Amino acid sequence: MVATSEMIPVPTDYAELARRPLDMDQCALIVIDIQEKLLPPIFQREQLVRNSQLLIRAAGILKIPTLLSTQYAKGLGGTVPDVASLLPGTEAVDKTLFSCFGSDVFCSLLKRLPGQRTTLLLCGMESHICVTQTALAALREGYLVHVASDAVSSRTEWNWKIGLDRMRAAGAVISSTEMMIYELMRSSSSAAFKELLPHLKG
Predict the structure, then answer these.
(1) Is 20 exposed, middle or buried (0-12, 13-18, 19+ CB in 10 A)?
(2) For the whole model, what pTM was predicted?
């Protein structure tokens, strides 16, 4: 795990957190538990998958490292093919605790990512369980956390929203897929933006 003393100090003022621009060199994308047996009952699941795909594509173009998790894959299935196919060579960290930070393997991989990765971008499910518990643990470890509100969900709309409310109250910045991507890309003239644009228009 990353000691808070090694991180950039996190301001307690939510407005200050929200004003701080995303920097692709400081970000890592965490794709949480988008699994075959978990996905069917998820509220707005098609939106969740599509936007998670966009974030994964953007991360690939911008060289933002991506970590992938599953929750008890033996019982709940692997990552859905539409997501796993965009992360060839990335092995999911399988866990039994709901927070990704409950996995020593995950914590070790996160700590070994190249560069100073002080900001975590979260997508996946379920908003009120694994995403929230991962976000809260990350905040306690001193990370800045941005949650793509339209790339996370739960089985019910209420739990999706209450998860977002809890994370925001704890200090996570609640964002959206396009907000993250356009902020990371910075300019419509960049080669990275032009490469991703066909997928944004899809």
Answers:
(1) middle
(2) 0.93
